């Protein structure tokens, strides 16, 4: 920790963490839509609210920042999961055959 402070590397740590979090959320959105459909948006809302609360409550600046990045990545994923559903309809991503069969039955 002292090394990161001495050489002023905290910005890079936050940048790398943000890059990894955003990189994690892309496949998370794709898988969530595949298995649960766009109706899973509420889980991203709940996660966003939880991490937003953690960000406010944690006193460590770096952890608070990372929790904030996770919170707003979750909020952004609400939009992305709906967009992902449209991408599947266009054929850009595979549809879950089990969910497609349920849609046809309706």
Quick rundown:
This protein is mainly alpha-helical and 106 residues long. The chain is 82% helix and 0% strand. The N and C termini lie far apart (57 Å).
Could you explain the architecture of this structure?
With 106 residues, this protein is mainly α. The protein has one domain (15-93). The chain is built from five helices and no strands. Helix 2 (10-36) packs parallel to helix 4 (61-89) and helix 3 runs antiparallel to helix 4. The mean pLDDT is 92. The chain crosses the membrane at residues 7-28, 34-54, 61-79. Keywords: Membrane, Transmembrane, Transmembrane helix. InterPro entries: DUF4491 (IPR027890).
What is the CA-CA span between the terminal residues?
57 Å
State the share of residues found in helices, binned by percent.
over 70%
Structurally, how many domains make up the residues?
Answer: 1
Task: Tally the beta strands.
Answer: 0
The succession of helices and strands, N to C, reads HHHHH
Keywords: Membrane, Transmembrane, Transmembrane helix
Protein name: Membrane protein
Jot down its keywords.
single chain; 106 residues; mainly alpha; Membrane protein; DUF4491; transmembrane helix
SSE map:
Blueprint: H1 2-6, H2 10-36, H3 41-57, H4 61-89, H5 97-105
Helix pairs in contact: 2-4, 3-4
């Amino acid at each position: 920790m002292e090394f990161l402070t001495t050489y002023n590397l905290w910005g890079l740590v936050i940048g790398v963490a943000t890059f990894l979090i955003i990189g994690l959320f892309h496949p998370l959105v794709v898988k969530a839509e595949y298995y649960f459909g766009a109706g899973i948006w509420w889980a991203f809302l709940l996660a966003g609210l939880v991490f937003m609360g953690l960000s406010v409550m944690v006193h460590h600046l770096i952890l608070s920042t990372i929790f904030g990045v996770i919170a707003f990545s979750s909020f952004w994923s609400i939009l992305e999961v709906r967009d992902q559903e449209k991408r599947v309809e266009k054929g850009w991503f595979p549809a879950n055959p089990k969910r497609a069969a349920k849609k046809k039955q309706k």
